[in-house]
Predict the 3D structure of the following.
Amino acid sequence: DVKVTQSSRYLVKRTGEKVFLECVQDMDHENMFWYRQDPGLGLRLIYFSYDVKMKEKGDIPEGYSVSREKKERFSLILESASTNQTSMYLCASSPQQGNQPQHFGDGTRLSIL
Amino acid sequence: QKEVEQDPGPLSVPEGAIVSLNCTYSNSAFQYFMWYRQYSRKGPELLMYTYSSGNKEDGRFTAQVDKSSKYISLFIRDSQPSDSATYLCAMSGPYGNKLVFGAGTILRVKS
């Protein structure tokens, strides 16, 4: 089974802080994704990566950046946290070949005070 | 208009009922269709994955795709309280792995 592990289940930070969310997958997948999930809005793609050191903007990249230094690890960075970034953050991975489905971690519930 | 529309519910049914969950979409390029189940405080887990039109069955679950109507469905037979969760539809086009999600339907199965 695919295992996608997010480092924190719950996180509380203050406005203006730099926040790091970490994600590790153990299936040697090329593709990795970061989403945020908000009630009524579903999952919205923030950033994704098709390979090491490669990144692409998703639908809502403003206020975020990412880092992919190793194939198994994909980090989401909130440069200067704001209260409107309070949300559930989900990481996912999938293999490069074909249109394979994505596999998700259990999420990080982030609160910005 | 959203690219994928899904009724948020909640949908409340008695145990043993047949459940029908649906999504409509506007992009005719979508070819791959998925259903995910998400329990409270957990990440989405893949339930069903289908390509193009037709039906796919897996145990109590049947996924149906009608590309001519741009309409997909998930049927759950003999529903159980453990099926209570949020169900997300997702889809993608032929080139790439980006998914477009519906907002999710909350299902409650009462014993």
